[in-house]
Fold:
Amino acid sequence: MNQNPLNSLLETSPEAKNFFGSLPDYVQGGIMLRSDEIKSEDDLHKCADSIFHEFE
Structure:
């Protein structure tokens, strides 16, 4: 079974894993729903920002 890009990123980048872990649950959930779109740490930060803005 192929892993999604988000899981691969979190396994290979301690910075991305720490950032993801520091986010509120609702943001982590939103990121998980878009996990196929996240291929880099920059994508992860942009996705988190987008979710924060949706809830402002």
Summary: The chain is about 70% helix and 0% strand.
